[in-house]
Design goal:
This protein is about 30% helix and about 30% strand. By secondary structure, it is an alpha/beta fold. It has a five-stranded mixed beta sheet with strand order 1-3-14-12-13, with helices on both faces. A hairpin with a 3-residue loop joins strand 16 and strand 17. Helix 4 packs parallel to helix 5 and helix 8 packs parallel to helix 9. The longest helix is centred in the last third of the chain and has 27 residues. The radius of gyration is 42 Å and the shape is elongated.
């Protein structure tokens, strides 16, 4: 701890306790990379770094001045010596560099290199790897290239829940990932993956740095986090400190510290720095705070220079700074805002987002120019709104969240969408799972998008609607599979028919009702029973989760015809049926779908026939007499002959009665 309370005889020193975290600044891996780069710059060999060596603009600029500029791709190397940054790269990139004739100086952090070796070893047999980290972080992208099996990148427990079922998997982490978030994700995967191999690859320095920052922020009145805004490590430190100390700022240099940031008499100030922050930047901030708050004040000086004291109470501003002010004047073209500076600020109507602003309203604005040449401060509300919108969009992107957009304009190759005020390009190939012929149909349409590419320099993004649809479909499919169990009855919709059955949508996945499971009776085509679009209840007969196949039954929810056959067709009863098929020994007659009886050849006619076809024809309707019902053996014996005999007997009885009565009638 550095205590800036100093007392001198005859003077009063302003007091402000200041504490700098013990592990602030360069970590071992970053320090090693920077030192090696500086050494490489001294030997005169043309050198560049693949990507920014570290996420700190000051260091990158200094290395560029030393003759080591960053390049974005292998094609830019042009035979120069190439430094691999501490984040590491995939083996394909290393091979491409060497194939291009480049000398490679690999400065991958030892902790990251260990992560690469673990991923390479455990996935050699095709085992999937679950990599916990930020999907677009260079370290994560480089690590994924070392896997020999499928790689799933997750940053939240929700993303871990959405992963497909896996029998086995390797779980490892980006080296700078917050430990508490790692544990939350690990808990989900321990439950979901049957054979999970865990390797916590979080750098010990990262864990120590975040723990120290948390402890310091908990007791500080204000916190200063020093580091590059592009550094994920620094942003995480800022998030950790902000959660415990609301008055936390992130600065890249001392010049960004607000003049009135701390109460110089009593507040306790904490300072920490990201792993990519050089000692010079950290010392600069500490020195700035020291000098700012250690000015000796004598009794005589306290009485003098009243105007200087008044001026000191005024806000100090700089270009790009965000300030809050009060609207004091409104004209047709401009709005005047009091920001506490010696001059009021002016906002052009075109730079005003809220056109209904009123006198006395407090608004947040950005300083565009401190002096426009006439002593006026130029402000913009649109700049700060756009910046916040961009930052919010990037936060969602880094968290892997979807964004809401509206189609605005069909252009060559795709669609321009508005995403929270930011223009996003959606390639035609990313609009839908299938080819889109009329891109203009999406203009004015609300859509959920996933950001797949970002150009932070030009503030441009590329988004995909297809990716959202694919992930939502996969999630819906996964949810549907979780609800399915053999034997359950589920509601579904008939989607399509084939010669061999009907495909039924049961909540996001399709199952097959085979033609033999549609009806207890014989049918030639599923359309005899169901139609596309028809809602039906079906029973899950079997599940094959590996092959994603579902066998469904429709007839199984209907009473089996044999269950009450004896009661419905008692022995001796005469019923009608359709001749279903002929055999050498008789004819099978369908009494109802799924229930056939046999008319033996001897029972087909009044007289003996040589062939069944001589007595009956297939498809004809016949009257038969039930001779016997065996529900256990599922057999019914029928007779056509006995029906004919009974009819003949009845006919002869009618004739006899006529012959007996008729003579009497004549005599009378």
């Amino acid at each position: 701890m550095t205590d800036l309370t100093v007392c001198h005889r005859g003077e009063r020193m302003l007091t402000m306790p200041l504490e700098v975290a013990a592990h602030a600044g360069f970590c071992m891996g970053v320090k090693r990379a920077v030192e090696a780069a500086v050494k490489a710059a001294a030997d005169g060999v043309p050198t560049c770094s693949l990507g920014e060596l570290i996420h700190n603009p000051r260091v990158v600029e200094e290395l560029t001045q030393l003759g080591i500029p960053p390049i974005a791709s292998v094609t830019e190397a042009a035979g120069r010596r190439v430094l691999i940054r501490s984040h590491g790269v995939s083996p394909e990139v290393l091979e491409a560099l060497r194939g291009a004739g480049c000398e490679v100086l690999d400065l991958t952090c030892p902790f990251v290199d260990r992560l690469h070796r673990i991923v390479e070893e455990f996935t050699a047999d095709g085992t999937p790897a679950v990599l916990v980290g930020e999907r677009n972080h260079p370290e994560v992208q480089g690590t994924a290239g070392w896997a020999r099996g499928p790689v799933h990148v997750v940053a939240t427990p929700e993303e871990a829940e959405a992963l497909p079922d896996m029998e086995r998997a390797l779980l490892c982490s980006q080296t700078t990932f917050p430990p508490e978030r790692w544990e939350a994700i690990a808990r989900v995967l321990r439950r979901r993956v049957r054979n999970l191999t865990e390797r916590c690859t979080i750098c010990s320095a990262t864990e120590t740095r975040q723990r120290e920052a948390r402890e310091l922020a908990a007791r500080a009145d204000a916190m200063i986090v020093v580091g590059g805004r592009q550094s994920a490590n620094t942003r995480k430190l800022h998030a950790v400190c902000s959660s415990l100390c609301p008055r936390t700022i992130l600065v890249e240099s001392a010049a960004e510290i607000p003049p009135a940031f701390a109460n110089m008499d009593s507040e306790y100030i904490g300072i920490t720095a990201g792993a990519s922050t050089p000692d010079g930047s950290l010392k600069e901030v500490v020195t700035h705070m020291t000098e700012q708050n250690m000015t000796p004040v004598t009794p005589e000086e306290e009485k003098n220079d009243l105007m200087a004291q008044i001026d000191a109470t005024l806000v100090r501003i700089r270009t790009g700074q965000s300030v809050t002010g009060t609207v004091v004047q409104i004209t047709d073209d401009e709005v005047c805002v009091n920001i506490g500076y010696k001059s009021d600020g002016l906002i052009k109507r075109s730079d005003l987002v809220d056109q209904n602003v009123q006198l006395g309203d407090e608004i947040e604005v950005e300083v565009v120019k401190v002096n426009d040449g006439e002593g006026n401060v130029l402000l913009s509300q649109r700049n700060i709104v756009n910046r916040k919108a961009w930052e919010a969009l990037m936060a969602k992107h880094e968290a892997g969240e979807y964004v809401e957009g509206v189609g605005k304009e069909a252009v060559k190759g795709g669609l321009i969408a508005d995403v929270g005020g930011i223009r996003a390009f959606v390639p035609a190939s990313q609009l839908a799972p299938r080819y889109v012929e009329k891109i203009g149909d999406f203009v004015g349409k609300d859509m959920r998008l996933k950001i797949i590419e970002v150009d932070k320099q030009k503030k441009r993004i590329v988004a995909s609607r297809k990716a959202v649809m694919a992930e939502e479909s996969a999630a819906k499919k996964k949810e549907a599979w979780e609800k399915l169990e053999e034997g359950v009855v589920i509601h579904g919709i008939v989607r399509r028919l084939t010669d061999f059955g009907a495909f039924v949508d049961v909540g996001g996945v399709d199952g097959l009702v085979h033609i033999t499971d549609l009806s207890w009776g014989h049918i030639k085509h599923p359309s005899e029973v169901v139609k596309p679009g028809q809602e039906i209840d079906v029973k899950v007969l079997s599940l094959d989760r590996d092959r994603e196949r579902i066998q469904l039954g429709y007839k199984q929810l209907m009473p089996h015809p044999w269950d009450n056959a004896a009661e419905k067709y008692p022995v001796g009863s005469i019923v009608e049926g359709k001749v279903a098929r002929l055999t050498t020994f008789g004819a099978f007659v369908e009494l109802e779908p799924g229930l056939d009886g046999l008319v033996h050849i001897s029972q087909c006619a009044l007289t003996k026939v040589a062939k069944v076809e001589d007595a009956v024809t297939e498809g004809s309707i016949v009257r038969v007499k039930v001779l016997g019902v065996d529900t256990d053996q599922k057999r019914i014996s029928l007779s056509i002959r006995q029906v004919l005999e009974d009819e003949a007997m009845e006919s002869s009885m009618d004739t006899e009665e006529f012959e007996l009565v008729n003579p009497e009638d004549v005599q009378e």
